[in-house]
Amino acid sequence: MKTRKKIDKTLEITLIVIMSVMVLNVLWQVFSRYVLNSPSSFTDELARYLMIWVGVLGAAYVSGRNMHVAIDVLPKRIGGKTQKQLEQVVRVAIVLFCFFGMVLGGSRLVYITYLLGQYSPALQLPLAFVYMVIPASGLVIMYYKISDIRKKL
Amino acid sequence: MEYVPILVLILSFVGLLAIGTPVAWSIAISSLLTMLVSVPAFPAFTTVSQRMATGLDSFALLAIPFFILSGELMNKGGIAHRLIAFAKTLVGAFPGGLALINVISAMLMGAIAGSAMASASAMGSILGPEMEKEGYDREFGAAVNITSATTGLIIPPSNILIVYSLASGGASIAALFLAGYIPGILTGLFLMIVASFWAKKKGYNVGERSSLKAIAKTFVDAVPSLFLLVLVIGGIVAGIFTATEASAIAVLYSLVLGFIYKEISFKKLPEILLSSSATTAIVMLLIGASMSMSWVLSFENIPQDISTGLLGITDNKIMILLIINVILLLVGIFMDMTPAVLIFTPIFLPVVTKLGLDPVHFGIIMILNLCIGLCTPPVGSVLFVGVGIAKTTIEKVVRPLVPLFVAMVVALFIVTYLPQLSLWLPSLFDL
Amino acid sequence: SDTKTIRLAHGLDVSHPVHKAMFKMGEDVETLSDGTLKMEIYPNQQLGTEREVVELLQIGSLDMTKVSGATLENFAPKIAVLGLPYLFRDRDHAFSVFDGPIGQELLDDAQQYWLKGLCFYDAGSRSFYTKDKSVEHPNDLKGKKIRVMESVTAMNMVSSMGGAPTPISWGELYTALQQGVVDGAENNPPSFYLSRHYEVCKYYSLNEHTFTPDILIASTHFWNTLSEEEQGWMKMAIENSVSYQRKLWAEAEAEALAAVEKAGVTVTRPSKEAFSKTTVNMLEELRDNEELYALIQRIKAE
Ligand code: NA
Ligand code: NA
């Protein structure tokens, strides 16, 4: 339980920081262009990459809290033991997707963009760094879901 | 036509939804399974990852977290409260007054921002709690918010109309913008009528008529809050910032005002930032996953196959427009707007121009149609935002949504078969 | 069956000369191979933006694409040389470089990044268009906010000419121009026309600062699965498409210029000298990058 709390806290702080930087970044974009009359070259790109991070890391945070929208009419109607089993099946499906799609696929994406040295146009940031959030987030979601599965066994 | 991919897609998607898998994961998993039909395993895994991440790689999407955040700040900072107090003295005595306020504000918001999701998140977080306080069903409030938010995509400025212009090979953006006003306002009016009837039927609180003095007092209170609208519209019109940047200005302004009203403190900020990022993330995972699904649909040519089959049926203009509208309504159920516009414009536009339809008119038909799809489960970004913000569930919102859908469909058919509604304004400016 | 489907995705509209040329290439390949090679083209960014599709080539889920040299330089850095301002004297100079050994060298260079460079398509030259005053001399750019692509080279170019380079996404540009967030932008005539930016910008000054080409590339994963014979058919079809595309492009350019003039745009042809002078330093600053600098000298000597 303690590990889970620590992960939650880390995600929370990261999300708060990214969100604040996103706002400041876009305000700076307007300020540098309109007030300083020397438009910033990196803000647009930074904003988009932060957006990816908020979305993908946030997805992990939200998964830990079970806040993702589901249509659970059928399982609720069935109820009882079958409903519990279905819930476990759903968790397993998510774990499998996170493993193959996000962790394996995401790591391969990071590997390819790192190996082939793709850089972003404005910040000259390695794309591998931007994409790293996918396998990382995939691992966190797997951790949350596996601990949920074990709790319910 | 390849049947295997489409079967895999539909079966896995429906199956996953049925056992209660969260929608975003259902979309992502079924997209990956479908991809595995024609793409080798490792490239497929990697492609799903890439689509989910790059689906969020868009500056225009920033308006979503920012309007969610500013909405929350307005809520906690006493701005929303003052705005609504003022609006209530104005239309509070009508049945469903708050719902009417919602529609009108959404249309106003639509005239500021190009994104329906932004509008849904701002209005939903400000008005939702107020409606509940007044005894409205949470789901009814969410439904009105969701449907009215889409009017902002037809009322200019509108990013999606720009996307359409590009996909159509150059329909005039200026003409498209002008063409959007009447259909957008018409749709808003229809929604107001339905909302008003529903509220009357449910017997929601109808306020008392306010005195002029009360109106004046609430107005003065609301001036700094109303100034936000002036700031945002003024800033865009004066060319100080773009529509997306305006959402960040809205955050700054509502934060400052919240501090001045002493209703927000630095201590409260992290909490507000966190809950806004969580709401944002719910939406973003859905968008990312939808982008994977759109990719695999296009990759397998599924949209083209479906429309070729259906258009082989007739060459009557009225019938074809009907068929196209039905196809687009079905597409909208499962697909997000931007990819749908990009995929279906080049397929349908040559067909309808041969029948003598104006590309500008068709653009309005298409966007208005796909607006409905944005509000329908299982895949509808505005629906997700509206439901997320109202903290309710999709299946509960469906019931009050149905009559509002009917209103939108009626508006759609009027706009489809009366081209003047779209083309009159542009014709005044020789466009 | 023994038919192979080649999947080509790109970001252009189907009316664009490059799409038409690639479509013809697909037909030719099918004929040459007696139907054993089929090409499936996905236009309009259906499968992603230029950058994303190049990445999908490296990932191995798509076979081919066409990208702007400006996009490809983030994958294969040497290509950046082609985007330098006033590197080419004129269009013939550009074509002779693309078609000659330097062009081939640059195409081959992409191979180490898992991308097989196949050919250059003409993307014309980019010039400034503005809202309220035509750009006859770099002085006319002073203090003007000019939208540029998100590329270091493009930004350096506009600032060395005296303007304020402003990266704004293509989708937001129309409204940004209309409302005056930026004062102008730069692009080739067909893009200026098709984007409808001429409705807002009434001055188009053909200073022709860059000749960045479009480049056809294939994934090496895919290319290596082709037999020598199949590669031969591909090369033949590609070669035919290049000359066809240049003809189409020239027509599209003339058409676009005529159409914007008819719509009330003042099209001017300022002297390039003053413009190219301002960018001399920019090229000189690349002296430290020996490889690139040598390439510049060779291109200039061509
Ligand atoms: Na709008
Ligand atoms: Na939908």
From TrEMBL, chain A:
Keywords: Cell inner membrane, Cell membrane, Membrane, Transmembrane, Transmembrane helix, Transport. GO terms for molecular function: transmembrane transporter activity. It is a multi-pass membrane protein. One of its GO terms (biological process) is C4-dicarboxylate transport. It comes from Flagellimonas nanhaiensis. It comes from the Bacteria. Signal peptide: none annotated. It is found in: Cell inner membrane. InterPro entries: DctQ (IPR055348), TRAP_DctQ (IPR007387). This is TRAP transporter small permease. GO terms for cellular component: plasma membrane.
From TrEMBL, chain B:
The chain crosses the membrane at residues 50-71, 83-101, 107-128, 140-167, 173-198, 219-240, 273-298, 318-335, 363-389, 401-425. The keyword Lipoprotein does not apply. It is a multi-pass membrane protein. Its main location: membrane. Residues 11-421 form the TRAP C4-dicarboxylate transport system permease DctM subunit domain. It comes from Flagellimonas nanhaiensis. One of its GO terms (cellular component) is plasma membrane. Keywords: Cell inner membrane, Cell membrane, Membrane, Transmembrane, Transmembrane helix. Pfam families: DctM. It is found in: Cell inner membrane. Signal peptide: none annotated. This is TRAP transporter large permease. GO terms for molecular function: transmembrane transporter activity. InterPro entries: DctM, TRAP_DctM.
